[in-house]
């Protein structure tokens, strides 16, 4: 097939026929086809009109005066007038110059009722310009601001580093990540238009005048949210206090549900975050176990393994931090996260892990090289600092997910996951490095002590694995919940779309964390075989944790406004 | 690399600036240096779009604020009208199927040579009528006229029809028989002036959102009655919804007529003065007692009475219908049963009244007058010698070139292929391989053709993929011409974008075919769309659709379109349209004079017939089809090309299923299911909702597979397919053997 570009580049190749008689008319029509003369042929209307003609339709849909003290702008949607044409979505896309598939406004569908009184209602929604915007609260680079006068929550595109934390935090799925630009963008209520008295694109374009801008008293809007009644199937408004007001004279039937209520679809996997979380936890765990080993068994002949362990842990820690930058849309601007230290757990996480990497490097260097002498007595303190900053970093990681309010990611649950991963992979890495170091450097030195330690580690791995797998498997109990809770959806996802990943996760976890320890503890402890077993358990457990974290992201249920039917 | 950057290049990208031309703020990077208004090319509403131009080329569009149709609004399709022109699968070069069965690029002269050689060979072997054409309601009136003249007068074809057969053939026949001419009598302003609006089989909110906008502008707090088996978006907005059993509409309207007559709620004087056959009609409806109608429709008797009363009490009652009526095995009579109600109550010819068909495609109405398929140019009759003489005189052609027999309708052309009578087919801007009823059979039928030419803007339509020769066509926005909308308004579309590759306007392609066929001189006067418009004016002179008062394209542009009729006399009376009012909103029959020779309208009626394929124990559910969302157009060849439109509707087929049926069948919400009829089996997702009644299911027509299920049954008068009633069964996909 010839491409359009090719034909356009060489149109004559497609003209030169053998019958010269036809050449002339074809040529003429082709030339004519490319001439654009509408401007010359038709009179120009409104050439001098400076003021927007559409104002005649929308002026009554705008507030008469800007918000006073304690007030702000808000969308008001007249549900009785919304007939579901979705012109607002496309007009917003078109008038604001968004990318072809980018939408800042969406229209969902709620249906229900009975055979006698069937019910369906389309629901248009954009940013709710919340009183307590989660996007703003979590942003590590202060790329959001809530205008003091208008209350509009604006995103500063040029300040954004593309971490997408706001995407995870907003309960209404409002900020949209634009991978081409590496930033997030969102509705700003067309603040530039509003500022000069023009209506936002959606307000201008609704054939039924169903969307208007009103001024609302912030306190009253907050009170409205306290009732928890926003829209059937919409996330709890108490979380961020959205200001959009949906008004209707109809009564929603009690079984009114969003059309996408029962559809469950995996969320984005966030590969770099999967790698970053698992590897930071591995690294911190390895340091912690090594550090604990020094305290528990001083002089147990572990010195030889120390260097290997610290070096490997440092290397993986650095890989983790490298992976995390891959997650950013604009990694070169990552330094801006220092702006968010006061408010954003993401900023704190990055700083904590940065400090961790620094201390870890010093610590590792002190063990590896002659630098050890330089640190001297400080080496232990430095080790403590490594572990301390690492654990602080993991705490920040936990808080990042906790703050999204997603059911799967609540603090206790995420803490259990992340800390058990830290312990498990820390023990696992320690086991491998000790056995490897013994095999390579000093096969006979302190054999007895090391065997005891190795046995301890195998037992520890089995114990932690059992705890972690049991914790994760306990999610499936939600399959029997009668309500369609977010955790039930997560469980459903793990038995349907994500069943493959879930099987791998448990198979790897059981093989590496239960089967191999059982084999070692019950049988042959010859060094060569031990090394193979240790390498295998480390590989299996690491892979298992990567699958676990993949499910952590994909099986989570992201809250959103009522959506349309998904097929 | 600043620590804090409030505004930089990314902010700049979306910066707005005053657009001028009354547009308000526009994207700074797309600021126009001129604007021009043109009619949208999707549906029959015929909205005006203000196209933003830079150096003559379109850079964007907004709905035209002052256009009398849409008053500054547009539906999603209109907003995205330019975007779909840029699709990578635009047909940019002629394609010919080679020996290996692949479509291969060729140049225009070769394409034309092959076109002529193959069709001429078929005609030489099997006769002239062995080559036929299937056209569309999507190209300009001038193009349709040139195609009709070229095919029939130039190339000697007898049979040609349009996809308009699928959309409004029923209304055409209904109006012709009832009024004496195919003349939808209304103007959109009537939507704002009624105090009772009755919508039948019309989901206006989704199918014609801009007309719904006009309903909402009605200041008279109207009663809005919706008659539809489903609780559609429009039914939700109604003041009263009558969820009748599918295909019981005819009985309902006869029953209402009986009630109105019985209670003497009719306009006797008007009926006596302006109609025929009232007595026969009154006698005919007598057996349609309220009990019978209640039993047929499933609507309580007292509600039917109340409806009659509402119609009686309304001072300006209008009746509107769309595909729920047209696409039926007895659609013509159903449309006429609504005409009868309007005639009985004298609700015609006055503001806010009428028996009003809302058409589908942007130029269905153009095809009704000037496609030269079902009727000879200007609503004339091929079988009428005087009509032929007149047309021959106006077009300065030999009268013997005008066929003296009627064309086969679409279904007959298809069965003609099956029977081996039609061997060559020219398909223009339509996609029967998706849209025609009983699709699997159609696929086999198309394969029997010796030569299939598809002329389209995309080379990827289901039909183009089967073609032997693909002719690349310029699209709406890349050519000039007029559309006629549902309210009879001529609107102008303009060339504001460059066609890809060597694609040509359909008009130019027809001219080139004429040259290649050796009949070029016959179309010497058809020099351009604008020149052809002048020919159409001549053809309309003295006809009910007289447009001799429309001077030229500029006048259409200045006035925001003009409704037919607009005679030279009217033009003089309104000062060339300068006094805009008469040119802006006009309705027919204010004088009570209809187009039959006696000037009277007819009551036309016939007993309802049983549904051709009622549900059985094997196929217990009734399948309804219809429009899914306002963001989808027909077979989605265009709307699928816009990323934002794609987001606005479910991507894959779904079937609406009532909760009672779902429970009985053990089908959960969103579960994959199979929908099966005697003709096919398709995969879909279940959407369990009481919006569709128990015993019925609904699938949007936009999904390619749906017509594998539908049954090829037609209205006997209009030959329009009955898409909206066939028996199916639904079962869980997982419960089926692989």
List keywords for this structure.
heterodimer, A: 567 residues, mainly alpha, Alpha-Beta Plaits, Formate dehydrogenase/DMSO reductase fold, 3 domains, three-stranded mixed β-sheet, three-stranded antiparallel β-sheet, 20 helices, elongated, B: 738 residues, alpha/beta, N-terminal domain of TfIIb, Rossmann fold, Dimethylsulfoxide Reductase, domain 2, six-stranded mixed β-barrel, 28 helices, 28 strands, 32% helix, globular
Describe this structure as you would to a colleague.
The complex is a heterodimer of chains A (567) and B (738). Chain A has 567 residues and is mostly helical. Chain A contains 20 helices and ten strands. In chain A, strand 2 and strand 3 form a beta hairpin. The two termini of chain A are 32 Å apart. In chain B, helix 5 (169-179) crosses helix 16 and helix 10 packs across helix 14. The N and C termini of chain B lie far apart (59 Å). In chain B, the strands form seven sheets. Chain B has a seven-stranded mixed sheet with strand order 7-6-18-17-16-8-9, covered by helices on one side. Chain B folds into four domains: 9-86, N-terminal domain of TfIIb (Single Sheet); 95-167 and 363-540, 3-Layer(aba) Sandwich (Rossmann fold); 169-357, Dimethylsulfoxide Reductase, domain 2 (3-Layer(aba) Sandwich); 621-735, Beta Barrel (Barwin-like endoglucanases). At the A-B interface, helix 1, helix 2, helix 3, helix 4 and helix 5 of A face helix 1, strand 2, strand 3, strand 5 and helix 3 of B.
């Amino acid at each position: 097939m010839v491409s359009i570009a090719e034909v356009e580049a060489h149109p004559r190749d497609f003209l030169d026929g053998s019958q010269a008689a036809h050449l002339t008319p074809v040529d003429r029509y082709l030339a004519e086809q490319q001439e654009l003369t509408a401007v010359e042929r038709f009179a120009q209307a409104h050439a001098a009109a400076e003021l927007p003609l559409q104002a005649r339709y929308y002026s009554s849909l705008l507030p008469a005066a800007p918000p006073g003290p304690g007030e702000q702008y808000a969308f008001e949607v007249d549900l009785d007038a919304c007939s579901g044409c979705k012109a607002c979505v496309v007009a917003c896309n078109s008038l604001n110059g968004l990318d072809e598939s980018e939408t800042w406004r969406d229209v969902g569908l709620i249906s229900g009722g009975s055979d006698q009184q069937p019910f369906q209602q389309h629901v248009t929604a954009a940013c709710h310009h919340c009183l307590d915007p989660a996007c703003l609260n979590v942003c590590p680079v202060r790329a959001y601001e809530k205008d003091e006068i208008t209350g509009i929550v604006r995103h500063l595109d040029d300040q954004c580093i593309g971490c997408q934390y706001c995407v995870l935090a907003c309960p209404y799925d409002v900020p949209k990540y634009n991978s081409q630009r590496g930033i997030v963008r969102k509705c700003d209520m067309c603040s530039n238009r509003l500022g000069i008295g023009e209506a936002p694109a959606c307000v201008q374009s609704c054939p039924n005048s169903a969307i208007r801008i009103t001024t609302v008293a912030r306190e009253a809007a907050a009170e409205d949210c306290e009732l928890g009644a926003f829209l059937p199937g919409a996330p709890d408004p108490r979380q961020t206090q959205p200001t959009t007001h949906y008004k209707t004279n109809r009564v929603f039937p009690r079984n009114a549900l969003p059309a996408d209520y029962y559809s469950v679809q995996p969320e984005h996997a966030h590969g770099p975050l999967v790698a970053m979380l698992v590897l930071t936890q591995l690294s911190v765990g390895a340091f912690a176990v090594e550090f604990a080993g020094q305290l528990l068994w001083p002089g147990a002949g572990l010195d030889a393994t120390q260097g290997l362990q610290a070096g490997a842990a440092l290397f993986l820690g650095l890989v983790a931090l490298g992976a995390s930058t891959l997650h950013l849309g604009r990694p070169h601007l990552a330094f801006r996260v220092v702006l968010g230290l006061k408010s954003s757990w993401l900023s704190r996480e990055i700083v904590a892990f940065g400090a961790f990497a620094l201390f870890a490097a010093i610590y590792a260097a002190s063990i590896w090289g002659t630098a050890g002498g330089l640190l001297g007595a400080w080496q232990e303190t430095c080790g403590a600092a490594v572990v301390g900053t690492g654990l602080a970093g993991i705490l920040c990681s936990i808080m990042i997910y906790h703050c999204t309010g997603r059911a799967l990611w609540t603090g206790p649950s995420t803490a259990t996951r992340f800390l058990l991963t830290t312990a498990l992979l820390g023990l696992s890495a320690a086991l491998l490095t000790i056995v490897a170091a013994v095999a390579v450097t000093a096969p006979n030195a302190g054999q007895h002590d090391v065997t005891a330690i190795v046995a301890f580690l195998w037992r520890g791995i089995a114990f932690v694995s059992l705890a972690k797998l049991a914790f994760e498997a306990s999610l499936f109990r939600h399959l029997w919940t009668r309500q369609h809770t977010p955790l039930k959806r997560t469980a459903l996802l793990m038995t349907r779309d994500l069943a493959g990943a879930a099987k791998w996760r448990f198979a790897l976890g059981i093989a590496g964390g239960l089967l191999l320890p059982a084999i070692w503890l019950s049988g042959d402890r010859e060094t060569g075989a031990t090394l193979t077993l240790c390498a295998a358990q480390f590989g299996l457990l690491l892979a298992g944790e990567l699958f676990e974290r993949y499910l952590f992201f994909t099986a989570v249920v992201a809250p959103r406004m009522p959506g349309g039917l998904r097929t | 690399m600043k620590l804090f950057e409030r505004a930089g290049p990314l902010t700049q990208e979306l910066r707005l600036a005053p657009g001028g031309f009354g547009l308000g703020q526009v994207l700074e990077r797309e600021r126009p240096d001129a604007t021009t208004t043109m009619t949208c090319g999707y549906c029959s509403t015929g909205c005006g779009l203000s196209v933003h131009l830079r150096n003559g080329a379109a850079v964007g569009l907004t709905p035209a604020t002052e256009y009398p149709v849409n008053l500054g609004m547009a539906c999603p399709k209109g907003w995205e009208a330019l975007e779909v022109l840029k699709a990578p699968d635009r047909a940019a070069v002629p394609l010919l199927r080679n020996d290996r069965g692949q479509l291969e690029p060729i140049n225009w002269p070769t394409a034309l040579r092959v076109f002529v050689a193959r069709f001429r060979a078929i005609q030489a072997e099997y006769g002239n009528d062995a080559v036929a054409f299937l056209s569309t309601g999507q190209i300009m009136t001038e193009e349709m006229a040139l195609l009709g003249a070229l095919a029939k007068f130039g190339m000697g074809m007898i049979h040609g029809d349009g996809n308009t057969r699928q959309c409004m053939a029923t209304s055409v026949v209904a109006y012709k028989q009832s009024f004496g001419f195919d003349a939808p009598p209304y103007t959109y302003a009537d939507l704002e002036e009624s105090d009772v609006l009755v919508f039948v089989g019309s989901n206006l909110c989704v199918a014609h959102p801009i007309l719904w906008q006009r309903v909402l502008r009605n200041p008279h707090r109207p009663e809005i009655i919706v008659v539809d088996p489903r609780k559609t978006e429009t039914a939700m907005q109604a003041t009263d919804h009558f969820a009748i059993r599918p295909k019981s509409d005819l009985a309902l309207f006869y029953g209402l007529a009986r009630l109105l007559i019985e209670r003497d709620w009719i306009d006797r004087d008007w009926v006596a003065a302006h109609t025929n056959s009232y007595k026969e009609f009154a006698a005919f409806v007598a057996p349609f007692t309220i009990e019978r109608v209640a039993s047929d429709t499933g609507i309580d008797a007292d509600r039917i009475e109340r409806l009659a009363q509402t119609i009686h009490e309304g001072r300006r009652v209008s009746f509107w219908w769309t595909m729920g009526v047209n696409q039926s095995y007895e659609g013509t009579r159903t449309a006429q049963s609504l005409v009868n109600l309007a005639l009985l109550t004298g609700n015609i010819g006055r503001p806010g009244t009428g028996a009003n068909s809302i058409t589908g495609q942007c130029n269905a109405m153009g095809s009704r007058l000037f496609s030269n398929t079902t009727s000879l140019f200007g609503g004339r009759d091929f079988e009428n010698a005087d009509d032929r003489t007149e047309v021959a005189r106006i077009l300065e052609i030999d009268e013997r070139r005008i066929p003296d027999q009627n064309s086969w309708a679409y279904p007959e052309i298809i069965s003609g292929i099956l029977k081996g009578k039609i061997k060559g087919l020219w398909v223009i801007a339509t996609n029967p391989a998706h849209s025609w009823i009983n699709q699997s059979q159609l696929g086999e039928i198309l394969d029997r053709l010796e030569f299939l030419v598809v002329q389209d803007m995309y080379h990827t339509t289901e039909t183009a993929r089967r073609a032997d020769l693909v002719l690349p066509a310029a699209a709406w926005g890349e050519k000039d011409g007029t559309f006629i909308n549902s309210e009879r308004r001529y609107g102008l579309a303009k060339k504001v974008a460059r066609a890809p590759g060597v694609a040509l306007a359909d008009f130019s392609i027809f001219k080139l075919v004429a040259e290649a066929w050796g009949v070029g001189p016959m179309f010497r006067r058809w020099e351009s769309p604008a020149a052809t418009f002048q020919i159409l004016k001549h053809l309309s002179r003295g006809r009910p659709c007289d447009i001799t008062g429309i001077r030229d394209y500029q006048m259409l542009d200045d006035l925001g379109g003009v409704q037919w009729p607009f005679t030279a006399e009217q033009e003089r009376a309104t000062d060339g349209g300068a006094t805009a009012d008469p040119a802006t909103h006009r309705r027919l029959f204010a004088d009570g004079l209809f187009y039959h020779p006696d000037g009277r309208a007819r009551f036309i009626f016939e007993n309802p017939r049983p549904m051709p394929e009622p549900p059985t124990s094997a196929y217990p559910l009734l399948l309804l089809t219809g429009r899914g969302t306002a963001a989808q157009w027909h077979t989605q060849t265009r709307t699928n090309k816009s990323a934002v439109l794609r987001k606005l509707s479910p991507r894959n087929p779904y079937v609406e299923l009532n909760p009672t049926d779902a429970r009985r069948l053990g089908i959960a919400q969103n579960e994959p299911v199979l929908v099966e009829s005697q003709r096919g089996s398709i995969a879909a997702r279940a959407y369990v909702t009481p919006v569709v009644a128990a015993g019925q299911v609904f699938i949007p027509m936009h999904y390619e597979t749906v017509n594998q299920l539908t049954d090829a049954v037609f209205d006997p008068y209009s030959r329009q397919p009955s898409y909206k009633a066939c028996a199916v069964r639904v079962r869980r996909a997982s419960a089926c053997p692989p």
